[in-house]
Write a structure and sequence with these properties.
single chain, 546 residues, alpha+beta, Porin, 2 domains, 14-stranded antiparallel β-sheet, three-stranded mixed β-sheet, 12 helices, 23 strands, 22% helix
Length: 546
């Protein structure tokens, strides 16, 4: 009996001490002090935070290293609520001055932050962690998006030991606030929050009005039909005059840097309205051998080097970052040399019996997110129109080397990426690349089906190392009679026959030189092919994101 009583007492004391330790975690007190210092009447002193960054820097580091528990309880719940509100403020500070969070590209659904060992966007915190796990409509009165139409931000932190009463208090304040629930006795105008998240409010109530009345001092008649006022995305800022001598430099707790554009803007991500991306991707492919239909390596008499320079621009036209439009320009060059010749001679860009160069094609492109709820899946489609003459060297320039396909090209790319923890990312791409026969081409209509995998590691916020592998078969889309030089006989190629393929693998690296400018270097080797090359590539990418 004594042993049983002693065991119960030990368990009870352990629980009390654990709860006390949780409540006394410095993170919660630091957030509380921060809010009391920089929040007044539901608005934030962003200018003062910019001038005195040490408190924010310390909290961002605490968010990144926070000790999560396995239980679904107030400890984790309060952590994520405070983290969401603090990271909203942090993003505004990183981009200050701004007039609205919507002016920052990827504010809610693209930009990722270190959160308790994970890389998360604000939308992931709200829509993948808090709402589906806790199923609490009161989140919409305590998560503050940085805009005037949000419920007012508090000047205190949410604490695990009094979280429920704090959330109740905020819900009651919001739903009795005439600026938030606009009811004059006849007409009712609600925040668009009640439209966007309607299902949350109907989990335990028959209507949105019934939910609102559960917190209101003066209930609204259930017969009233609500309308919705426009959401005001103006920044919830309190203007303050900078104080002389207030500039502060803290070496002990630096302000966390802006999230890496390399990590954020993978090819699957889109730009929000007004955002722009400019890229020049330079590719050199060089070979001194090829592989025949039996995949046997055959040495050539010289070296063939091909340069491809793709310049493209994308522009965001959708506020929700679901549609981008732009165009491509393609420059090609070829240089035929001795086996020991340098592949870099291709940059001479001269037209001679052993070299050619031209702006070969131009075309529009569109990029879009087909599934709203899957932000890491997107589709890009471009249509290239050849503009240079005799690209395949079969007419006027028959004595010059082949440079490019003289064909219309429709290139469709399907992108998907997945982030693991704070340092790893898998990116996949599947392509449908159609080339349509055109006058001046000796190549038949065909489709390439490349599938690619990239595994990326982020040792720092500014750098990336990655491994890549790609396999690409080519199917001919029309029947043709071909000649086999090895057997000196004709053979028939039927529609959808695989006429060639290749596989390549390699390594690459990216570095974020500035917040907007990225540099990429990579190289690959073609380790097998059928009727294809046996060479290697060298690549240089320059990417500028506004």
């Amino acid at each position: 009996m004594k042993k049983t009583f002693l065991s119960i007492l030990i368990i009870f004391l352990f629980a009390v001490l654990s709860n006390s330790a949780t409540s006394q975690n410095p993170y919660f007190q630091d957030v509380d002090n921060f809010m009391k210092t920089f929040v007044v009447d539901g608005k934030v002193k962003y200018a003062e935070i910019v001038e005195t960054p040490s408190m924010l820097g310390k909290i961002r580091r605490e968010i990144a290293e926070f000790p999560m528990t396995d239980e679904i309880g107030p400890h984790n719940k309060a952590f994520y609520i405070n983290a969401y509100n603090m990271l909203v403020i942090a993003q505004v500070v990183d981009n200050y001055p701004v007039g609205s969070p919507m002016e920052v590209n990827g504010f809610f659904d693209v930009n990722k932050f270190d959160v308790a060992g994970d890389k998360l966007t604000l939308n992931q915190i709200e829509n993948e962690i808090l709402r589906p796990v806790y199923k609490d409509p009161r989140f919409h009165f305590v998560l503050v998006c940085g805009a005037v139409s949000c419920p007012p931000i508090t000047n205190f932190a949410y604490m695990p030991d009094k979280l429920d009463s704090q959330m109740d208090k905020q819900a009651k304040m919001a739903l009795n606030n005439n600026d938030f629930v606009r009811f004059d006795g006849g007409s009712l105008k609600l925040s668009e929050i009640f439209k966007w998240y309607k299902d949350d409010f109907l989990m335990d109530h028959a209507s949105v009005i019934e939910y609102i009345n559960s917190y209101r001092n003066k209930p609204i008649a259930s017969s009233v039909t609500p309308s919705y006022y426009d959401y005001d995305w103006t920044l919830n800022e309190i203007k303050v005059e900078p104080k002389p001598g207030l500039q502060e430099i803290s070496k002990e707790v630096p302000v966390a840097p802006v999230v890496s554009n390399i990590f954020t803007y993978t090819p699957s991500k889109l730009l929000k309205k007004g955002g722009a991306e400019v890229q020049l991707f330079n590719n050199i492919y060089t070979q001194t051998a090829y592989r025949n239909a039996d995949r046997e390596k055959v040495q050539e008499e010289g070296r063939s080097t091909y340069y491809g320079g793709m310049f493209y621009v994308l522009y965001g036209v959708s506020k929700t970052a679901r549609v981008n439009v732009g165009f491509d320009l393609n420059v090609k060059a070829v240089y035929v040399d001795s086996v020991k010749g340098s592949p870099f001679k291709v940059f001479g860009f001269k037209t001679t019996p052993y070299s050619r160069a031209a702006l070969t094609s131009i075309g529009p492109k569109i990029k879009f997110q087909p599934i709203k709820s899957v932000s890491n899946f997107s589709v890009q489609s471009a249509f290239w129109i050849p503009i240079a003459k005799d690209l395949e060297s079969i007419e006027e320039l028959s004595d010059y080397p082949w440079m490019d396909y003289h064909m219309y090209t429709w290139w469709n790319q399907f992108y998907f990426d997945k982030t693991f923890g704070s340092s790893w990312q898998i990116f996949t791409e599947f392509d449908l690349l159609f080339r349509f026969k055109k006058t001046g081409s000796k190549t038949n209509t065909h489709v390439d089906l490349p599938i690619s995998l990239f595994a990326s590691w982020f040792p720092t916020t500014k750098s990336t190392l990655y491994f890549q592998i790609q396999y690409s078969p080519r199917l001919q889309l029309e029947e043709s009679l071909e000649y086999d030089w090895a057997t000196e006989s004709n053979y028939t190629v039927n529609p959808f026959d695989m006429i060639s393929d290749y596989a390549q693998t390699g390594l690459g690296a990216k570095y974020q030189i500035t917040h907007n400018f990225n540099l990429e270097l990579s190289g690959t080797y073609f380790f097998t092919s059928k009727n294809g090359g046996a060479g290697y590539t060298m690549n240089l990418g320059l990417r500028f994101i506004i």
